[in-house]
Amino acid sequence: MATATKAGPSAAAKKMFEIATAGRKLPGRYFLYGPEKIGKTSLAAYLPNPVFIQVKGETGLETLIDAGQLPPTAHLPGEVTSWTDLLAAIDFLSKSEHEYKTLVLDGVDSGQKLCFEYVRMVSFEGDEGKFMAYHKGYDMSPNTWKELLVTLDDLRLNRKMAVVMIAHARVSKKKNPSGEDWTHYTPNLHEKIWEPTAAWADAIFFLNFETIVSDDGKGKATKSRIIYTEPDATYVAGNRFGLREEIECGESAKEACENLAAALKAARNTDGKEG
Fold first, then answer.
1. Taking the model in full, what pTM does it have?
2. In CATH, which of 3.30.70, 3.30.465, 3.40.50, 3.30.160 is domain 26-269?
C-alpha cells in the first residue's frame, strides 16, 4: 500500500525562512506634527520628489502654491472626502508606474475623521449616538485604521516610497503641584488611533518655535523653528534613526528639509551615533 508523502515547503516559503542579518533598506515612515501654520506642509514639499494626498479640509498645499510660497508640487486633484477613497488613492499610487519618491498624507487628523465616519456608517448604521455610546465607535475604529497603515506599507514596499503623515498639534496643560503648570503638545489624534500610529512610525517629529528659558524659569518662544526628534516633558517625539534631539530649520522650508536630510545621513554614517 502506497503511503502519502508530505509535500515540502515551496520555493517562496524557503526564501521566506532564510535567515537575514541586514535590513531591506526600505524608505522611512515619518510622522510630522506641530501648531497651525508652523510650516509642516512647506517642509514636506521639499522632500525627495513628493506627491501629496490632501484629505478633506486640508488644502494648504494648493493655497501655498497659488500664493507663490511653494513651487508647483505634485498632488492628487482636489480633496479625498471618504475613507474608501483615501485607501483607493494610496492603492492607486502603489500599483501605478511613476517616479515619486515620497507620499505626503496631509493631514492625518482629518483622515481620522473619515475613519470614524466610515465606522459609524458600517457598524452603527450612521447613528452617532450608537457610535458614541460607551465609546464603542472609538474602540472599534483602530481595526479599520490599521487598514490604512497596511496600505501605506504596501506602497512603501511596492514603490520604495517614503511615507510622511502630517498632523496638527493638540495643546493641553499639565498640572504641576509644586509650581506653574506647563504646556504639553501631542498629535491631534484620538488615543485609540495614536497608539498603533506611533508604533508604526519610524520617526515622530515635533515642529515648533524654539523656546528659551529665562533665569526665572519661564520659557519664551523665539522665531527660530526646530524639529524635535526625541521626547520631552512638553511634547511627544521619538525616532529609530539615532538622530540628535534638535534639528534647526534655518531660514526656509527648503533649508529645513536639507538639514533634516543631512541629520539622517549623518546618523546612518555613524551607526546611529551622531557627532
1. 0.88
2. 3.40.50
